[in-house]
Amino acid sequence: NMTRKVIIDCDPGIDDAVALCMALFDTRINVAAVTAVAGNVPADQSSRNVQAIIERIDPPRYPRLGAASDPELSPGSNASYMHGEDGLGNAGIVVSRLHHQHPSEKIICDEVRSDPNRVTLLCLGPLTNVARAFQRDPELPTLIDRIVMMGGCVNGMGNVTPAAEWNMHYDPDSARLVFRSPVAKTLVPLDVTRAIHFTMGFLDELPSEETRVGAFLRKILQFRYLAYHQRLGQESIHLHDAVALLAVLQPDHFAFEEMAGDVETRGELTAGATIFDRRRNRQWRPNMEVAMTVDAEAVERDIVQCLSHAGRANG
Q1: For 32-46, 78-92, 296-310, which range has the lowest pLDDT when averaged over its residues?
Q2: What's the pTM?
Q3: String of b and e for 248-269 (b: at least 16 CB within 10 Å)?
């Protein structure tokens, strides 16, 4: 079986939800687990949202679920202004409480251990769970095929502060631990995810209202357009996490560069900033590949195609 085994670690979040709709119906990957992490929404809500999305879209194979718990030093902020009070555009989805859910970091350890060197970890939120998994099982970094992370920025233009991107800023200590771990890493920063814009016309390209995926996405994306308009004065939206998923599905749409990166954990102005040694006489060793440019049209087209497929698969 050549389909790639993937764990998706996420904090839904509207763009996380779009990425899950794509991934759970894509035949090129086998989503073995979806693990919740605190970020866009607190831990409890994140765990509920992961379950809600999967129940709502009803994919052919149900992944294992991991429950989030808040990081030790949570910044206490949330992204409700961009994602709604519930993280899903105030869609009001009700879920049954799952009893005895395993913690996300345990699920990550179990899935990687059961299939060493075969699992890709796609991280769409803060890196809390991955850092915990590495602390729990120090050998784990050498057993993961690759970690693909949405986060950070190379040009220094953050989105939660002038210097920092949301996922890195939320738990910079975990991000630093992961950046410094001996695991193959790919970073998909704001520099490329911001290059892809979805205008209102995107809603017309979604699967029909009659499909589960189409009905769900229309409901949550309306909120995102409104938030971008009101908060950013922008008529188009970004779907950072859907772009990061494409770095797993179609890496040829991106140009990657080997970079030496770290995360600032303490700065008054710079906490969560991703710092790269780009000096001519670089002192740091390269530790990750970073997506530097992207074929925006190809990525946009592929996102639409993935979602169309998801709509057809679960009409």
Answers
A1: 78-92
A2: 0.97
A3: bbeeebbebeebbbbbbbeeee
Question: In terms of Cα–Cα distance, which of 196, 216, 197, 195 is closest to 206?
Answer: 216
Q: Which residues are catalytic?
A: 240
Share of the chain above pLDDT 90, in %: 89
| CA distance readout (Å), 182 to 113, 143, 185 | 16, 10, 9
- How far is CA 241 from each of CA 54, 84, 122, 128, 189, rounded to the nearest angstrom? 17, 17, 10, 17, 10
Compute the distance between CA of residue 262 and CA of residue 269 in angstroms, rounded to an integer: 16
The packing angle between helices 14-23 and 212-227, to 10°, is 150
Angle 170-175-176 from CA coordinates, rounded to 5°: 125
Two structure tokens written together for 191: 């520099």
Determine the pLDDT at residue 82: 87
Contact 168, 130 (CB under 8 A): no
Q: Which residues are within 8 A (CB) of 272 and not within 5 positions of it... i.e. 6 or more apart? A: 158, 160, 161, 163, 164, 165, 168, 169, 170, 172, 175, 263, 264, 265
Q: What are phi and psi of 4, to 5 degrees?
A: -75, 135
